[in-house]
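#struct-help
A.M.: can someone run this one for me? Single chain, 136 residues.
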Amino acid sequence: MLHPGATSPDLTTNDASLVLAIRYGASRVVFTGDLEAPAEREMLAAAQRPSATVLKVAHHGSRSSSSEVFLAAARPGLAVAMLGAGNRFGFPSAAVVSRFVARGAAWLDTATNGEVTIDSDGQLERVSTCRGGEAN
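D.P.: on it. Structure tokens below:
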């Protein structure tokens, strides 16, 4: 568990999201819930490093999440955003997708790709989607 810490101040509902890291050999998947930039900064200040081979994109790709400093610490190879097609919030933010891609992360989202499955043997990750297609 990376967040919230025992000494976290009053948090918004989104920033109180549970952040979990699961490691299997060289694979590390980080699930970020609806975490936003203030909690990202708090997590980094508490020396909770979110380094990930796969990162579940926070808050459906909202512009209030996935800050530059957080992505620099996480360094994901693959970003997966969970969102509905044509959602009323306009998720994901084009700026957020650009931040991931500029850092070299492949991007998949459930609106475009449907269900995303990641299998790992502890060294390699195999990614498939129900609609096919490649990560951007």
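A.M.: thanks! DSSP finds four helices and seven strands in the chain.
D.P.: also worth noting: Residues 20-129 form one domain.
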